[in-house]
TrEMBL record:
Xref: Gene3D superfamilies: FAD/NAD(P)-binding domain, HI0933 insert domain-like, Translation factors
Entry keywords, A to Z: FAD, Flavoprotein
Keyword Flavoprotein annotated: yes
Record's protein name: Aminoacetone oxidase family FAD-binding enzyme
Organism: Oceanimonas baumannii
Cofactor(s) the protein needs: FAD
Domain RsdA/BaiN/AoA(So)-like insert: 188-335
Keyword Flavoprotein part of the UniProt annotation: yes
């Protein structure tokens, strides 16, 4: 049986970060992954450029059943710490919008950074390692793979969530948590496009490819000012992905197509103009035609609207309601909501409170960030703090 100080299951962002940090402390570290490539989700992210962090990371940008849980790790390993690591490796990057940082060249640069950090720290990485069994061995663990019997003092689970099954996502981490008696909260797809109800699909599908800036609002009042994109399956774009994490089945989402008061101002300035003509200057023409065809608006000269009609049109444009049929699910979701209950874990070390020397980091736990580099920062921060103690 091969003995290691630390075994990390998962060669993704969190797992590699933790492994490198533990290796720097002189720990003998083995990383196991069932895939054939390191950091597959990193390579796919940000259109292949990897949105590796965000200038504006703060605890309020994370969904978690315990909103205080993320504070310690994010404070101890910040976005500035990871940016300094990117600078150390000479990786060129740029800010896109809203503080989002992307590699100039390729997401491979971030994978190479993590591999280099692991190599410097003496970490061993084994790919295509199928784990058959995990159980307690004294104070540590026995890990059986298809080819080996391994033992370790500390076991770190960095297996990610269920999003993007085509690159190997599995519920392995959740099953392992349950095996050791930890509570796992229900999971669902997050940062994911919406599908439409059949009646909406019929009238909105022709808008496929139309994009516009909106403010998307969930029923709990969470708002995101981003862009909305109509697709042949439903609606997507950053505004939709963001609000999808706050949406529950059966709820509506409202989109501010135009700021409140815009129409009233138009009546004062151009009373003789047709509503359709004026709106087509403010919004994509195909969207205006769809709103009229759906009977949500009627077009006539602005001066002919009664106060009541004007108020109704104003309300519609300031909060256009849409009730999604559902989401596209894990197939296209960027993240998984839910997972290992953070009440089971130490916020300072990511250790399981009930099981000595067992750690959970990254997306496998019930922590989900906004779109825009927040989830990668959680991987770096949670991986780093666990790496200081395993």
């Amino acid at each position: 049986m091969q003995a290691w100080d630390v075994i990390v299951i998962g060669a993704g962002a969190a797992g590699l970060m933790c492994a490198a940090e533990a290796g720097k402390r002189g720990r003998r570290v083995l990383v196991l992954d069932h895939g054939k490539r390191i950091g597959r989700k990193i390579l796919m992210s940000g259109g292949g450029r990897c949105n590796f962090t965000n200038y504006h990371v703060e605890p309020g940008a994370y969904l978690c059943s315990n909103p205080h849980f993320v504070k310690s790790a994010l404070a101890r390993y910040t976005q500035w710490d990871f940016i300094a690591l990117v600078d150390k490796h000479g990786i060129p990057y740029h800010e896109k919008t809203l503080g989002q940082l992307f590699c100039d060249d390729s997401a491979q640069d971030i994978v190479d950074l993590l591999v280099a950090e692991c190599e410097t720290a003496g970490v061993t990485i084994r790919l295509r390692a199928e784990i058959l069994d995990v159980d307690r061995l004294g104070d540590g663990f026995r890990v059986a793979t298809a080819g080996d019997e391994l033992s370790c003092q500390s076991l770190v689970v960095a297996t990610g969530g269920l999003s993007m099954p085509k690159i190997g996502a599995t519920p392995f981490g959740y099953r392992l948590a349950e095996q050791f008696g930890l509570k796992v909260l229900p999971t669902r797809a997050g940062l994911v496009p919406f599908t439409l109800q059949p009646e909406d699909k019929q009238t909105l599908e022709p808008l496929s490819g139309v994009s516009l800036p909106v403010v998307a609002e969930s029923e709990d009042g969470t708002r995101f000012a981003e862009s909305l994109l109509f697709t042949h399956r439903g609606v997507s774009g950053p505004a939709v992905l963001q609000v999808s994490s706050y949406w529950q089945a059966g709820e509506r989402v409202c989109f501010e197509l135009l700021p409140a008061g815009s129409l009233t101002q138009a009546v004062a300035e151009s009373p003789n103009q047709e509503l359709k003509t004026w709106l087509s200057r403010q919004l994509p023409k195909r969207l205006v035609e769809a709103l009229l065809a759906r009977g949500e608006l009627t077009s006539k000269p602005l001066k002919q609207y009664t106060a009541k009609e004007l108020a109704a049109a104003e309300r519609l444009l300031a909060a256009w309601p849409l009730q999604p049929g559902g989401t596209e699910g894990y197939r296209t979701a960027e993240v998984t909501l839910g997972g290992v209950d953070t009440d089971e874990l130490s916020s300072k070390t990511m250790a399981a409170k009930k099981v000595p020397n067992l750690y959970f980091i990254g997306e496998v736990m019930d922590v989900t960030g906004w779109l825009g580099g927040y989830n990668f920062q959680w991987a770096w921060s949670s991986g780093w703090v666990a790496g200081q103690v395993v």
